[in-house]
């Protein structure tokens, strides 16, 4: 008799649950997204808010179009035209806070808001981790907290670089400054030879050749630009013919590229001690030598499976995998019964890890949002099961078994190298396509066209060409404020 009642109750519960889902009477599953970078912002855009209650938590209240960040650091573009406010996404709930901890057993995250540092918690049915990464200094002495050394991952960092750049020229123009100090102030060091730093060095060259030559002509002989790269060449992921082209271009511009060289320490706050013992006094240094995990990811313990570089491990459907100390699941299986997902720099596939690239993060976001939209009934049923204390995520596991795993499609690499020139590497786009490398003016046009079309809002699609026109015809703004 007890068994009969239990069976009937179970059938009634399942029947009621399906009816609620079909009629839309059930409360929408709560999806919480951590981070608003290339993965988090795109996912928040694409997820169907009529089917899910979507909240986004991030200390930064805007999406940043990072490929154009070097342009803002010298005034080619203005800061606001490469960002998109998070709250412009319709139907999204936003909290400006940082996530400190994840309780995947009780499906909660613990956060600290950015203003008064008060604590609060948020419940979720599904959690999407996309907090991005931060610049890695490799614990080089004298880098962290140095007012002359800047990273280049956020808008406030680009603004600081721009202000320091103008300050260097204004100070160098003072009559009380000695020639030796003037040379130090106008020595600019770029640490790292990746695309971001190559583009910054190129933007800096354009700024020097046009705006400094016009407004600080007497200071131009004191200026020097150095690029310090630990490997044997810059633009490591690009085709060798394009690398040679850019290295020769930099040489012709008197940009000193120091290959197979590292920065061992910063002495007296303004002297870079290189690996061979050479001392290089500088006025401004831009440091972009790779990434490391943010504090949230670093703090996650052995309950979470981690791989190389501390990145979280996930399966081919972007579900986080349980670590050796995980509760309620076996190591290597989806964590939290498949309710925790990850995208972007913070995680990688346990079998085939992908590089920390913007296009990887964006494609993962598109895939996960599409998966959840197309299988919303499964996700809703599983969420309601969990709330009713029943077998939770088995429904989703069975449903997702038919979903194709995530497949990354490489779209090529490109970089602007200054003076209306660029490089575009279309190799390895697919097994059947290995396009020729493009360089020079055509590559520059492709670079600008590609990034213009990728802008999110029509406002920025209008403003960016206007600032390109303004900086070309009238020059860059050299005001410091």
In terms of topology, how is this protein built?
Layout: H1 2-23, E1 30-34, H2 38-46, E2 53-57, E3 62-64, H3 69-74, E4 83-85, E5 93-95, E6 97-103, E7 108-113, E8 119-123, E9 126-129, E10 133-135, E11 149-150, H4 155-172, H5 179-185, E12 187-191, H6 195-215, E13 224-228, H7 240-252, E14 255-258, E15 263-267, E16 271-274, E17 279-281, E18 284-287, E19 291-293, H8 295-299, E20 312-314, E21 340-342, E22 347-349, H9 358-374, H10 376-387, H11 394-400, E23 413-418, E24 421-425, E25 438-440, H12 441-453, H13 458-473
Parallel strand pairs: 1-2, 1-9, 2-5, 9-21, 11-18, 12-13, 12-18, 13-14, 20-22
Antiparallel strand pairs: 3-4, 6-7, 7-8, 10-19, 15-16, 16-17, 23-24, 24-25
Helix pairs in contact: 1-10, 2-9, 4-5, 10-11
Distinctive features:
five-stranded parallel sheet; 25 strands; alpha/beta; 13 helices; disordered N terminus; 481 residues
> In what order do the strands lie side by side in the largest sheet?
5-2-1-9-21
Count of DSSP-assigned helices? 13
Total strand segments: 25
What portion of the residues fall into strands of 2 or more residues? 15-25%
Low-confidence stretches: 1-25
Helical/strand content category: alpha/beta
What's the overall geometry? elongated
The helix fraction, in percent, is 25-40%
Integer average pLDDT: 91
CA-CA gap between termini: 80 Å
Biggest sheet features: 5 strands, parallel
Roughly how many Å is the radius of gyration? Answer: 25 Å
């Amino acid at each position: 008799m007890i068994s009969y009642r239990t069976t009937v109750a179970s059938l009634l519960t399942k029947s009621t649950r399906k009816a609620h889902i079909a009629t839309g009477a059930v409360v929408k599953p709560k999806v919480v997204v951590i981070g608003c970078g290339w993965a988090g912002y795109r996912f928040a855009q694409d997820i169907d808010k009529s089917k899910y209650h979507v909240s986004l938590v991030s200390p930064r209240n805007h999406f940043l179009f990072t490929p154009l960040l070097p342009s803002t650091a010298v005034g080619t573009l203005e800061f606001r035209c490469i960002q998109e406010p998070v709250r412009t996404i319709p139907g999204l709930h936003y909290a400006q806070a940082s996530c400190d901890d994840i309780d995947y057993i009780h499906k909660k995250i613990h956060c600290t808001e950015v203003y008064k540092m008060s604590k609060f918690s948020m419940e979720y049915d599904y959690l999407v981790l996309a907090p991005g990464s931060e610049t890695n200094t490799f614990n080089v002495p004298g880098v962290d907290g140095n007012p002359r050394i800047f990273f280049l991952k956020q808008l406030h960092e680009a603004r600081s670089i721009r202000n320091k750049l103008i300050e260097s020229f204004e100070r160098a123009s003072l009559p009380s400054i000695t020639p030796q100090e003037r040379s130090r102030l106008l020595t600019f060091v770029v640490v790292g030879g990746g695309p971001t730093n190559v583009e910054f060095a190129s933007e800096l060259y354009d700024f020097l050749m046009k705006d400094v030559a016009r407004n600080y002509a007497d200071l131009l002989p004191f200026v020097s630009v150095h690029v310090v790269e630990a490997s044997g060449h810059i633009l490591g992921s690009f085709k060798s013919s394009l690398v040679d082209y850019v290295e020769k271009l930099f040489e012709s511009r008197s940009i000193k590229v120091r290959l197979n060289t590292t920065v061992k320490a910063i002495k007296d706050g303004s002297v870079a001690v290189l690996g061979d013992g050479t001392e290089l006094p500088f006025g401004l240094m831009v440091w972009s030598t790779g990434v490391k995990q943010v504090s949230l990811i670093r703090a996650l313990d052995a309950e979470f499976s981690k791989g190389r570089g501390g990145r979280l491990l996930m399966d081919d459907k972007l579900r986080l995998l349980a670590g050796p100390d995980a509760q309620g699941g076996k190591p290597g299986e989806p964590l939290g019964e498949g309710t925790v997902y990850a995208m972007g720099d913070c995680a990688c596939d346990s079998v085939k890890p992908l590089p920390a690239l913007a296009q990887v993060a964006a494609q993962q976001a598109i895939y996960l949002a599409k998966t959840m939209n197309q299988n919303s009934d499964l996700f809703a049923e599983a969420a309601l099961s969990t709330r009713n204390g029943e077998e939770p995520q088995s429904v989703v596991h069975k449903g997702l078994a038919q979903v194709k795993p995530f497949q990354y499609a490489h779209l090529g690499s490109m970089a602007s190298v200054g003076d209306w020139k660029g490089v575009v590497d279309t190799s390895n786009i697919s097994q059947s396509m290995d396009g020729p490398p493009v360089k020079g003016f055509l590559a520059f046009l492709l670079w600008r066209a590609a990034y213009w079309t990728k802008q999110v809002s029509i406002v920025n699609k209008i403003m960016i060409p206007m600032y390109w026109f303004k900086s070309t015809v009238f020059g860059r703004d050299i005001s410091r404020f």
